[in-house]
Amino acid sequence: MRTIHAIITGVGGYVPDAILTNEDLTKLVDTSDEWITTRTGIKERRILKDPSLGSSYMGTKAITQLLEKTHTKPEEVDAIICSTTTPDYIFPSTASIMAENCGIRNAFAYDLSAACSGFLFGLVNGATFVESGRYKKVIVVSTEKMSSITDYTDRTTCPLFGDGAACVMLEPSNEELGLIDSVLHTDGSGFPYLHIKAGGSANPISHEAIDNRQIYTYQEGQQVFKAATSKLVEASNEMRRRNNLSADDVTWVVPHQANMRIIDSITRTMKIPMEKVMVNIQKYGNTSSASIPICLWEFESQLKKGDVLIMSAFGAGFSWGSVYLKWAY
Fold first, then answer.
1. Averaged over 285-297, what is the pLDDT?
2. 295 to each of 166, 207, 254, how far by Cα in Å?
3. DSSP state, 304?
4. What's the confidence (pLDDT) of residue 270?
5. Which is more confidently placed, 266 or 13?
6. Are 166 and 188 contained in the same domain?
7. What is the model's pLDDT at position 1?
8. Last residue of a domain, which of 176, 192, 219?
9. Does position 2 have pLDDT exceeding 80, yes or no?
10. Inter-residue contact 297 to 12 (CB < 8 Å)
11. 27 and 156 share one domain
12. Are residues 237 and 166 in the same domain?
């Protein structure tokens, strides 16, 4: 009996039309284009401006595109796994809202929260369903309205984040393609350095929390930068060692788009030339769990069957990981 592999058969994506440039941010906080660019590599980011629209709006756009590109009928979808840090509501799940929007009514759908690592966690989760042989079409979607949890009076965090969504279709195959290996980690001791102070059951929303701006992303940048750089390098190198992959074997490195200096550090350590690294942080900023699938969506035309991809991410939790994938089309 042949092993079932979970392969990506299509990619969909969506980013809002509104662009927030570094120059725009200079009108909100004491900063400059040079200060932001040299420290992060970000020049602009997309923003979903309509306050009545949430993450499900962007995810629905991405899934609709995916269904069209893969010629999939809504009733054929078995499951939707949504990674998001910015759900529309505490409940129901954003996945269930997108399923209804897309006419997907035969599938089970749920949200997964692993911050910026969410897509990789969701991808491994979805691949397991497919590899079991019980499910034929699983959508993994990452959608993030990061502007909704960004404090635009904080000059250290407001330049970092943007909004967007992207998704992939996972299907079974007997070929040696798709998700080959993965390594995922969590270290809860990272909590103090990256979190939102209020809004959950431990510290519910209150007038005091709003007045103290505790409903927005709090980050101790130095600590996060140090941990992200070391853990991403560690995970990427572990993936290569486990699978005996040389730098020449790797077609593409797909890093989480958090900071250009972190991306540079990973690729230098792995001895991978920048032309083999997917980078779009300059256009979209940090879209949290959506950043890796947005890269896949944007670079899709440059991918070919058999390409070796190493995808790596780091986020709050701390959560991090790396996935070794062979492109299937």
1. 98
2. 9, 39, 7
3. -
4. 87
5. 13
6. no
7. 58
8. 176
9. no
10. yes
11. yes
12. no
Whether pLDDT at 269 is above 90: no
- Separation of CA 115 from chain center: 8
Short-list 177, 120, 324, 127, CA closest to 239: 324
Name the residue range of residue 275's domain.
180-326
Q: Are residues 112 and 259 in the same domain?
A: no
Maximal CA-CA distance, the chain: 63
- Considering the domain architecture, whether residues 208 and 302 belong to the same structural domain is answered as yes
* CATH number of the domain within which 34 lies: 3.40.47.10
**Interval 66-76: pLDDT, tens:** 999 999 999 99
Following CA atoms 163, 261, 246, 276 in sequence, which dihedral angle do they give, to the nearest 10 degrees?
60
Task: Give, in order, the Cα–Cα distances in Å from 138 to each of 77, 119, 222.
Answer: 6, 13, 38
Q: What is the percentage of the chain residues whose pLDDT exceeds 70? A: 100
Q: How many domains does the chain have?
A: 2
Residues 6 or more apart whose Cβ sits within 8 Å of residue 288: 85, 86, 115, 116, 118, 142, 144, 146, 161, 315
The predicted pLDDT at position 56 comes to 99
C-alpha triplet 194, 198, 204: angle, nearest 5°:
150
Are residue 158 and residue 219 in the same domain, yes or no? no
Question: Which of these three, 125, 147, 176, is where a domain ends?
Answer: 176
What Rg value do the Cα atoms of the chain yield, rounded?
19
- Taking the C-alpha atoms of residue 224 and residue 40, their distance in angstroms, rounded to an integer, is 13
309 and 225 inside one domain? yes
- Do 166 and 20 share a structural domain? yes
Of 228, 198, 217, the C-alpha closest to 319 is 228
Active site residues: 116, 256, 286
Q: Is 165 in contact with 296 (CB distance < 8 Å)?
A: no
> Exposed e or buried b for every residue in 60-78, given b needs 16+ CB within 10 A?
bbbbbbbbeebebeeeebb
Beta 163-173 vs 5-14: how paired, if at all?
antiparallel
